[in-house]
Amino acid sequence: MKNIIIFGAPGSGKGTYSDLIKEKYGISHISTGDVLRAEMKAGTELGKIASEYTSQGKLVPDELMIDILAKTYDAQPKGKGVIFDGFPRTIAQAEELKTMLAERGDSLGMMIELLVDEDILMQRLLNRAIEQGRADDNEETIKNRFEVYRTQTAPLAEWFEKEGIRNTFSWEQYPSKEAMIDAIFKVIDKENA
Ligand code: AMP
After folding, report:
1. Ligand 1 pocket test, candidate residues 5, 89, 91, 150, most atoms within 8 A of CB
2. Cβ neighbours, 10 Å, residue 28
3. In CA terms, which of 86, 118, 136, 166 is 20 to 30 Å from 157?
4. Ligand 1 in contact with 87 (CB < 6 A)?
5. Is residue 166 annotated as a catalytic residue, yes or no?
């Protein structure tokens, strides 16, 4: 099974579709946001540093993230493939991921991009704030996260394009969770045929 990088703005459904992909293909799932939230909850040194950034909607520094990612990747079972959710978020992280995987005889695999309009995203995130009580899902922080996404993360889509592994799915084209996941499954099946 090829690795999958799931890519999109905050609220675009990376976690939701990762869970569905994981369920169908038995692939491992690494969410760097989940890793950081667990560290913050446990009150570790890393968690304390991370909360200074996440609480403001800022990115945690690349060196720290790359280290966390490599450790988490090395702890996964080998040969099943991995979904990277929330990583990479900068060009530097993408380059490092490519190198890290190559050093381990692995490769990036395929990228799945989720495209959703910002007004829909804002509504989803405000709803999630009520349902899940995530500390960084308030309007002020959400606006910062969108800004960070636009300036630091969105340009990465072109990087994946150049790698020849970009697959885009827009909410406009597939306006329901069912339509979206069906289209995603088809592309994953094709890539792994
Ligand atoms: P997420 O759950 O993926 O939306 O991540 C929540 C927060 O964790 C982000 O807003 C960032 O502050 C931080 N974070 C998660 N992944 C990364 C990453 N790859 N690089 C930098 N910061 C990250």
Report:
1. 89
2. 18
3. 136
4. yes
5. no
In DSSP terms, 168 is beta-bridged to 113
Is position 37 annotated as part of the catalytic site? Answer: no
Q: What is the pLDDT of residue 30?
A: 97
Per-residue model confidence (pLDDT) at position 149: 97
Please work out whether the CB of residue 57 comes within 6 Å of at least one atom of ligand 1.
Answer: yes
How many residues does this entry show for the chain? 193
Question: 10-residue block means of pLDDT along the chain (193 residues)?
Answer: 97 96 97 96 96 95 96 93 98 98 97 96 91 86 94 97 98 97 98 96
**CA 151/CA 148 separation, integer angstroms:** 5
Cα dist from 164 to 47, 117, 126, 187, whole Å: 35, 24, 35, 14
Pairing of strands 4-8, 110-115: parallel
Burial 159-179 (b: 16+ CB within 10 A, else e): bbeeeebbbebebeebeeeee
